[in-house]
Amino acid sequence: MPAYLLIIILSLLQFQKNVDKTNYFSISVLDNNTAIVCGENGKIIRTTNGGKQWTNSRFTGRTKNTLYSIHFINSKVGWVVGAYGTILKSTDGGISWKNTDSSSTYNLMCVRFINPQTGWIVGSRGLILKTTNGGKNWLRQYSNVTHDLASVSFPSEKIGYAVGASGTVIKTTDGGESWSPLDSGYPYFYFSVFFIDTL
Q1: Mean pLDDT, range 23-44, rounded to an integer
Q2: How far is CA 22 from CA 41, 128, 192, in A?
Q3: Which helix (H) or strand (E) holds 3?
Q4: Which of 3, 113, 123, 155 has most Cβ atoms within 10 angstroms of its Cβ?
């Protein structure tokens, strides 16, 4: 789905009759009819009819923390991350969510998986977390940067990129074991990165 269409969807949510005035930050589209959105106050809502109606997801261990990023690896398994180390996991297509321990109190800004077992999270103060067992454990990787990281993308299991504040762009070629800075040329805050191949 084109990026501009996702922006339109997010901006129009507030005009749906059954959607409140919550600010929403991320969306994951599962098919032509099903999408899940996350935002402020621990809010996650879901549509199964192309956005005509939205319902609240169920929680085990409800959080009021702001949720910044949502990512589904398939039609059933998805992840949400947010403020103060919040990690949530769904195994039923976003109908319900459970808390997962991140062992961090930093703000977690982006989550991405390349398969059901392997994924990364980036966040404030250069934080990078990696799992290789489907989120049962998250281990810290050292980015060698102190600026906030806002987005991460792995076009392969070894090659990945992360971006963030003050023009920060870093790259790994060994699955995150080490990261090297890249010169972006601009001291701006980069909010998102996405690669479709390893070139």
Answers
A1: 95
A2: 8, 28, 22
A3: helix 3-12
A4: 123
DSSP state for residue 8 in the 8-state scheme: H
Tracing tokens 């589209």 back to the chain, one arrives at 29
Q: Please give the single-letter amino acid code of residue 44.
A: I
Boundary (domain end) residue, out of 100, 118, 143: 100
Beta bridge partners of 22: none
Statement to judge: residues 154 and 198 lie in one domain: yes
Report yes or no: 172 and 181 within 8 Å, Cβ to Cβ: no
Amino acid at 43: K
pLDDT at 103 over 90: no
In this structure, how many other beta carbons lie within 10 angstroms of the beta carbon of residue 102?
21
From 133, 136, 134, 151, select the one nearest 103 (Cα to Cα). 136
With a cut of 60, say whether residue 3 has pLDDT above it. Answer: no
pTM: 0.87
d(CA 181, CA 171): 6
**How many CA within 13 A on the CB side of residue 98?**
8
Rg (CA), the chain: 16
Determine the distance from the C-alpha atom of residue 83 to the mean position of all C-alpha atoms in its chain, rounded to a whole number. Answer: 12
Residue 142, pLDDT > 50, answer yes
Return the pLDDT at 114.
Answer: 94
